[in-house]
Amino acid sequence: MRNIILFLLLIFLVGCSEKSVNIYAVVKPNDLNKVQIRDIKIDKIQNDKVNLKERIIQKMEEINGIVSNYFNIDQNSNTILNGEETFIINDNFYSKKVKIYYDKPRCKVFLYPCKNINNMLFCKRTPKIYGIKDFNNLEKQSYQNKNYILLKNEIYKKNVKCKPEFETIKCEKKEILLNATLNIIKNKISIFSKTYTKSLIDDPCKDIDEIYPNSEKIYKSDIDFRVETDRLANLIANEFVADIAPHYSMFNIEIIDDLDVKLSNKDKKEFENIISKIDNNKNDIFSLISKMEKLSNKYPKSCIIKYDLAVMYMKIK
To answer: pTM for this structure?
Structure first.
């Protein structure tokens, strides 16, 4: 009943919220709901290169800390967990062509010599080529008309070309693929089978399309294969155990700090202090609850204080 009231309060009051807290609640198995797995034999996982079997046992022991003695690992049980694992790591270098970025465009000016014959201009195909800086100096001594320039009594057709420059960089690409198929057999009948896949690709050059002239030319991956493999294996162990057993799930619940009754200055500061510390330290939550209960008793008409107090109660369940 209290949970229903709390939910209704949340619907009406959440619009006023500016702060939230994380609440952990025990939820049902994600997948295996019709059959309870309590006694289980942990058999061999084929090709287990990441110690997945031991990680699963560790996660089951953690579940026993949430729901007392939920799992009984019994090598004589007729419910058996087995599976097969595929583990692949790659560490390769490859080359990539990228554009060089300059603060100012790297352009060149092409001047094609022209001659006036019967009031018609005929220009040669072979140009004189100048850098922008050199051309700017020449330009001061010239006269221009659209794409033509008169320079030292000679007529030229002007064409400016800004051709991008490229550099080849060397890139390290690391990949991890972890695939595990886990099965639960009860009395020689399969009651659960699922494949879990986790992967990681770290490529520092993935989003590099251009570099500065003096940038590094070699880009290495900074991931640690051992650390990331442990992380991916733990994710699979977590997901598997969550599929077959009750487990903690985190919910983000709003705390409302916009009061609906007028408090004394002292009590208002106390309320704000409590709200600011709710998520700081688990050891403080009982002291904070005691303080909020006093405010609730002092201001019995405040729905906000009651709501926040209910959320705080949920943090210790």
So the answer is: 0.66
